Amino acid sequence: MRKKAPELDFEDCLQEECAKSYRADYIVSRNTVDFRNSDIPCIEPEEVCRIIEDDGI
C-alpha cells in the first residue's frame, strides 16, 4: 500500500482502500479536500446526482 498524505485519517484510508478493491470510479464525500491525494477521484453527492441525470439512469 502506498503511503498516504498525513491528513488522511483512518476512516478516509478505509474508504479509499474499499473503493480501490471494488474498482469504484469515484469516492463520494462532502469532504473532498481529504481525498485530494487519492488515486480515485472524490466528488460531492451533488455531482453524483448530475452524473446520474446526464446518463439517464
List the helices and strands and how they pair.
Blueprint: H1 10-21, E1 27-28, E2 42-43, H2 45-55
Parallel strand pairs: 1-2
Description:
- The structure is a single chain.
- The chain is mainly α and 57 residues long.
- It has two helices and two strands, in the order αββα.
- Strands 1-2 form a two-stranded parallel ribbon.
- The longest helix is centred in the N-terminal third of the chain and has 12 residues.
- The model has no long low-confidence stretch (mean pLDDT 88).
Characteristics of this structure?
2 helices, 57 residues, mainly alpha, 40% helix, globular, two-stranded parallel ribbon
State the order of secondary-structure elements, H for helix, E for strand: HEEH
Count of helical segments?
A: 2
Mean pLDDT: 88
Radius of gyration: 12 Å
Q: Uncertain regions: pLDDT < 50 for 5+ in a row?
A: none
Per DSSP, what share of the residues sits in E-state strands of 2 or more residues? 5-15%
3D shape = globular
Helix content: 40-55%
Largest sheet: 2 strands, parallel
What is the topology, as strand order, of the major beta sheet?
1-2
How many individual β-strands? 2
State the end-to-end distance.
34 Å
- SS content category: mainly alpha
Short description:
The chain contains two helices and two strands; from the N terminus they run H-E-E-H.
